Amino acid sequence: MSKRASVQDNAVSEAVPEPLSPRERGGGPVAQTGVRPGGGCGDAGSRFAADRSAAEAEEAEADARLRRHGARACSDAELLAWILAPGRAGFDLREGARRLLARQPLVELATCPPAVLAARPGLGPARARRLLAALELGRRATRPVAVTGLLVRRPEDLTGLLRDEFRGLDRERFMALYLDARHRVRALETVSTGSLNASLVHPREVFKPAIALSAAAVIVAHNHPSGDPRPSGDDLELTGRLDRCGELLGIALLDHLVVGDADITSIREYGWPAPATG
Predict the structure, then answer these.
(1) CATH number at residue 267
(2) What DSSP string runs through 128-190?
(3) Residue 47 class from Cβ within 10 Å (0-12 exposed, 13-18 middle, 19+ buried)?
């Protein structure tokens, strides 16, 4: 080896310091720092793993119960968590579902405005839509009477259906039932949903589906959030307008029903508006 190479090796050895021990670095022994090698927080990591393991075990138990006994054996929170899943990282949907139900029962969630529901922690617009759709499908699946094919001979034939449709609403909703020539219901549609006191209805929105369905007759209905089923002056005026439009189209308006808390009023029986003259 040349003298120049030996001098260079000595220079490199002097330039690289010896590694310090943990005590010399001022941190003490690694075992006393509470931090595992690699920089992770041991306690926090253990808690996260334990929480995740418990959630997975709870999920597996609920899933097994569902498979053995059906959905009726599961709690509201479990069903709600499955509807809302998948959740974002770090958010426990099952716990979020429990908090949501503690704040608002299912019967109120079903009528909650989408924007209000979407603002709940952990939900957002997509989950709010999914939840409202699931609740509405469940409500429709348990209707007291089937809608399509229902024979309507008198207003009382629609009592159960209308009670179900308007239950729990704090706003006025206007609906139309489209009937065939034998007065069997072909479809039920929401025409408009209005304010706390009134809904704006245009005859076009009522009869457009009737024409598309080739309906022979129409029955309209709306609720009074006040609970009073007596028709207002506006109700009678609207009934007259719809009746005249139906005559022009050859589609009869059979009745207009006003739904209150305890009773349903048939405007046909209450006093049908007189035809316009002149």
Answers:
(1) 3.40.140.10
(2) HHHHHHHHHHHHHHT-SS-STT-B-SSGGGGHHHHHHHHTT--S-EEEEEEE-TT-BEEEEEE
(3) exposed
Q: How many domains does the chain divide into?
A: 2
> What is the enclosing helix (H) or strand (E) of 46?
helix 42-69
Please report the pLDDT score of residue 82 as a whole number: 77
Residue 273, classed as helix, strand or coil, is: coil
Q: Cβ distance 234 to 201 under 8 Å?
A: no
Which stretches in the chain have pLDDT values below 50?
A: 1-3, 5-9, 11-17, 22-39, 48, 89-90
Q: Check: CB of residue 99 under 8 Å from CB of residue 106.
A: no
Q: Which of 111, 141, 171 is the last residue of a domain?
A: 141
Pairing of strands 252-259, 217-223: parallel
Question: Is the link from the previous residue into 86 a cis peptide, with omega within 30 of 0?
Answer: yes
pLDDT for 16 equals 46
For residues 152 and 217, give the distance between their C-alpha atoms in angstroms, rounded to a whole number.
Answer: 11
